């Protein structure tokens, strides 16, 4: 009989403790919807009492109608107090979620040192807090913090903590390797012991400080744990949490557990990449299973063997988890993607048509140069519209100049742009607090007379990545710009060895995309002096 | 009795199969010296017959007088041929190294599909090739490619392969999980079986396709393997090789094996970071043990507990592996570092002196802003010399301007610099194929009349990193520039939200550092028109 494993995702809570990760309420909602489509069973949203972002998240997530259980996070009640009066517990009960995780101490050393209370009071804190959730009709998960360190130091007390949570009605008892220092063999032995002592379902929550979080999660499951807590891409404090993108396929494809549906598993790679984009954390090319190089082959012998039989150098079929083999230049999943995308846009596209082949070749060539359209839908749409729809560029760039000037310690960035808007020449300049800001200001100033609504959108995010860090001053960079209008956002891309040019490309695409959906005002062409007067006002 | 584990580093061979990693012979020599100081037992240098870089490496590495055994890598002889006439084996014998690793097939499927020969001929190929090494007086390591897949498919044949290598005199039989698809439990069981069948010493070589390479290496050691093959930072094809930076401390600090000396272990973090700089691969902040965030604490509760007792949230003392706790802003190991560095430079520096405290505060402040002096020794030296030595800047920057101009599809980058060289004003301009190249050309042109030897150095490497990818167009970047003279190299750093300004800072530091060691020529001050004529020639 196949054993079911429950996946508890804490990307939105523990994942955001990772250095450099900061998610808005909007980001969290997008991620929650994506996780739900992947099929995780629990989505930990955060602490509903801790900050305004989390409060907003819990209010809005109800409207998404997700299948996964949204859970709130908090601690056991404060020492020497009453659960009913604990502000944090009250907020959880009022948040409207049906399940919550409470973290409590299971290492006697921590009870003394960090909590500074008695072992007995800690047990009461756990009992009272879990019982409070149950009285409020909620599913209760108990996170036993530092359980493995606690067990090694004082097994009887650590087990007493778990029994207390069980007695209070905890639905899941989750064993946490909070410092990430435990070895897989110890995890296996200790989980086996816990299983023999408890009747409640056991979960495992590990950290990657020894690069063993995945192995430790598997060891716990093999010893009887039935829930795995982790994050997408292993985000989390210090070295991160257990990486669900590796744990899920290992459990399902290698060890025969039942975790997700086969179709859901195929969305794993897309989910990982989408969330890395939202979190704006560079995904290592070599990330297991879902990385861009996870099934990439460059060695000559490997490639010739792969072409004979892909099993020779691939441990699974990459398609099972939505990744793909890479040998040749082509990065794109294939022309069927492009055709279906164009058809979505209402364009008359046919896979066998010569023009389609040309645009596919063009996109492959651009991806080879370093463009990446997965994160730049708007640039892709412009390419397709111009090829198939005869969509005209909203404006033509005649030239641009960028001046960076440092004198007397102050920096000035100035941009000069020369455009042609439907036959009307426009030539203007603007300053900014940096080169890209100046270019943005100049473009905006030039186009405002024609598109008075241009002020309704702005640049929301700007990212630079060096594609090939070698190559001294000729290193290529990719710039991604995210823009936001009143009710939508779009992303555009530019690539060049000149960072100013790459930024300019992405910026121009962003404006062109915005103007596609904006009414143009007729500005009467005038002589050049007058035009300069107009746009320089 | 403590068990010794032999560490076989293949960063220079298998590590260079990683996407985006390319090492010059010079890079490889620097890395070999660093690995030797760390105390690894074997350093695999590459394939002495495969390319000119590796040939140069094997010639020059002998002069370094390293303690580690340098090993060459190759395959078993070609099918239906004689080892003595195999060019690749001959090159290994002639390379002058005392040990070599030969890879051979142990998966019957591969013998048929990839090698396209008989199982019997494959056994002969292995026997002949290992025997050839032994006849040449070399230590012989046999890498059994795909051993675990082979064993699962045909255990008898896979074991026969190992016995053949053993019979031919192999000193080490290394079991390879080439596709990285094996689970830790399988590794443990199969290594246990192999140990019961063989007398030769066993090694383990794993890949990280399931994010289990570290766990699999440990499982093999716990089952009796006595050598671990891996790479620094886990570099390698697809998802990488087993990461020695995690395996070594896990074996030594967690599982009680004897691997390196305690003092050597303290160089682990420095070694990992140095090699990531040479390989120019960004080290993830969250990398286990050696990452910059591996012992970083930001949660309020964690920090207060850490301050009570660091054991509360740290699984080991970070100093054991040369890393450090990070709570506060200060990134620098401490003032003792700065004082000893200044003393190395012959500066009269005292830790208790007010000026020393000021410069330490200044460096901490700069590091907080994103400067990183570990990778920019020359910028650090300039700071110290200017503070303690009264070293004057070789030139003063009055102003610079950078013009990027795109018209008619072509990009022009132009730089205008205004300097003051010992009272002489210089004002000049130059073009380049990108903004940084133009700034470099302009500086060079301005300084050449004063420092005719300025042509003896050039920019060797240029790196940009976005420090805080959020923050739209105001994202901060760090630029690192490596410069090379006739017999030395130096690195400098600049940080700004304006990439042009950050590049300029690093460039100016590079020139200042170079000029410290160059004779200045007296250029007679002339009126401004004449000077302009001079420098614009």
UniProtKB/TrEMBL annotation, chains A, B:
Pathway: Amino-acid biosynthesis; L-isoleucine biosynthesis; 2-oxobutanoate from pyruvate: step 1/3. Belongs to the alpha-IPM synthase/homocitrate synthase family. It comes from the Bacteria. Its EC number is 2.3.3.21. It is an enzyme of class 2 (transferase). Residues 5-269 form the Pyruvate carboxyltransferase domain. Keywords: Amino-acid biosynthesis, Branched-chain amino acid biosynthesis, Isoleucine biosynthesis, Transferase. The keyword Endoplasmic reticulum does not apply. Coiled coil: none annotated. It catalyses: pyruvate + acetyl-CoA + H2O = (3R)-citramalate + CoA + H(+). InterPro entries: 2-isopropylmalate_synth_dimer (IPR013709), AIPM/Hcit_synth_CS (IPR002034), Aldolase_TIM (IPR013785), Citramal_synthase (IPR005675), LeuA/HCS_post-cat (IPR054691), LeuA_allosteric_dom_sf (IPR036230), PYR_CT (IPR000891). This is Citramalate synthase. It holds the Pfam family HCS_D2. Gene3D superfamilies: 1.10.238.260, 3.30.160.270, Aldolase class I. It comes from Paenibacillus thailandensis.
């Amino acid at each position: 009989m196949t054993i079911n494993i429950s996946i508890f995702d804490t990307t939105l809570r523990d994942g955001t403790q990772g250095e450099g990760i900061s998610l808005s309420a909007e980001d969290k909602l997008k991620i929650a919807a994506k996780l739900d489509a992947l099929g995780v069973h629990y989505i930990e949203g955060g602490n509903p009492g801790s900050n305004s972002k989390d409060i907003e998240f819990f209010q809005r997530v109800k409207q998404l109608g997700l299948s996964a259980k949204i859970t709130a996070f908090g601690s056991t009640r404060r020492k020497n107090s009453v659960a009913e009066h604990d502000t944090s517990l009250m907020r959880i009960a009022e948040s409207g979620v049906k399940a919550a995780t409470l973290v409590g101490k299971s290492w006697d050393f921590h009870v003394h040192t960090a909590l500074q209370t008695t072992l007995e009071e800690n047990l009461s804190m756990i009992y009272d807090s879990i019982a409070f959730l149950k009285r409020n009709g909620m599913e209760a998960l108990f996170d036993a913090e530092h359980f493995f360190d606690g067990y090694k130091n004082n097994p009887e007390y650590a087990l007493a903590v778990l029994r207390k949570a069980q007695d209070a009605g905890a639905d899941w008892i989750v064993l946490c390797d909070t410092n990430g220092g435990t070895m897989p063999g110890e995890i296996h032995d200790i989980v086996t012991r816990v299983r023999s002592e408890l009747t409640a379902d056991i979960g495992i929550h590990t950290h990657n400080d020894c690069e063993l979080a995945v192995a430790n999660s598997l060891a716990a499951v093999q010893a009887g744990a039935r829930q795995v807590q982790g994050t997408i891409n292993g985000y989390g404090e210090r070295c991160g949490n257990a990486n669900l993108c590796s744990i899920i396929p290992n459990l399902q494809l290698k060890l025969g557990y039942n975790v997700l549906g086969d179709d859901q598993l195929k969305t794993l790679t897309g989910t990982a990449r989408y969330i890395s984009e939202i979190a704006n954390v560079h995904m290592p090319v070599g990330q297991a299973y879902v990385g861009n190089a996870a099934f990439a082959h460059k060695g000559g012998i490997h490639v010739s063997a792969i072409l004979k039989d892909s099993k020779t150098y691939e441990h699974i079929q990459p398609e099972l988890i939505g990744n793909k083999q890479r040998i040749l230049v082509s990065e794109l999943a294939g022309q069927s993607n492009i055709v279906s995308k164009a058809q979505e846009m209402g364009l008359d596209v046919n896979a066998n048509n010569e023009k389609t082949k040309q645009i596919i070749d063009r996109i492959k060539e651009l991806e080879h140069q370093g463009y990446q359209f997965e994160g730049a839908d708007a640039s892709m749409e412009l390419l397709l519209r111009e090829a198939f729809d005869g969509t005209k560029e909203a404006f033509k760039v005649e030239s641009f100049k960028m001046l960076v000037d440092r004198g007397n310690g102050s920096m000035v960035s100035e941009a000069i742009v020369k455009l042609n808007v439907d036959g009307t020449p426009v030539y203007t300049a603007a300053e900014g607090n940096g080169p890209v800001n100046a270019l943005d200001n100049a473009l905006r100033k030039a186009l405002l007379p024609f598109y008075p609504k241009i002020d309704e959108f702005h640049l929301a995010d700007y990212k630079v990545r060096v594609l090939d860090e070698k190559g001294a001053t000729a290193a290529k960079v990719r710039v991604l710009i995210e823009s936001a209008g009143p009710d939508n956002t779009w992303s555009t891309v530019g690539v060049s060895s000149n960072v100013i040019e790459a930024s300019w490309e992405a910026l121009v695409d962003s404006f062109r995309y915005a103007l596609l959906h904006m009414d143009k005002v007729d500005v009467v062409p005038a002589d050049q002096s007058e035009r300069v007067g107009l746009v320089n006002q």
